[in-house]
Amino acid sequence: MTPDQLKALVRTIPDFPKPGILSRxxxxxxxxxxxxxxxVAMLAVQAAAAGAQAIAGMEARGFxxxxxxxxRLTLPFVPVRKPGKLPVPVLAIDYALEYGTDTLEVDPGxxxxxxxxxxxxxxxATGGTALAAAQLLRQAGGVVEHALFxxxxxxLGGANRLRAAGLTVEALLDFPGH
Length: 178
Known about the structure:
It contains six helices and nine strands. 33% of the residues lie in helices and 32% in strands. The chain is an alpha/beta fold. The protein has one domain (3-174): Rossmann fold. It has a five-stranded parallel β-sheet with strand order 4-3-7-8-9, sandwiched between helices. A two-stranded antiparallel ribbon has the order 1-2. α3 crosses α4 (61-73). It is globular. The model has no long low-confidence stretch (mean pLDDT 95).
């Protein structure tokens, strides 16, 4: 499947979550078996080329793609969770959102010191969550140099924000606008 064929599987929903926003909904992509498989295969090629020794994905949609890529490459998957979801002492980081703050947590025992961790998520918009995840995974001892996404919204500048923080960023698809 080509990137253009994958792009055709992404549903656009106008005015969600608020007027003027075009939401890029990946549920139609993951609901298409061949499309989802092709997407995971493409991300796996990129993760392998980046030298991944583990894959990290942010809750929740990063779990879908990250876990599938980790399984395909037979690598460990590191879930980057929302607060209060892990039953062990965690490392946590607070980060800014457009209208407030949020927190991410990780089990520090899930990453070996010096392990090359590649971040995978469904979409990069402003980059706040991915940047916080990279900082948290580095704090846990991981070497985080690559972030992979299914969709980039380049007009929101997130990929450039991650590049400025020293990450190599790749996305399978891009959509203009918000």
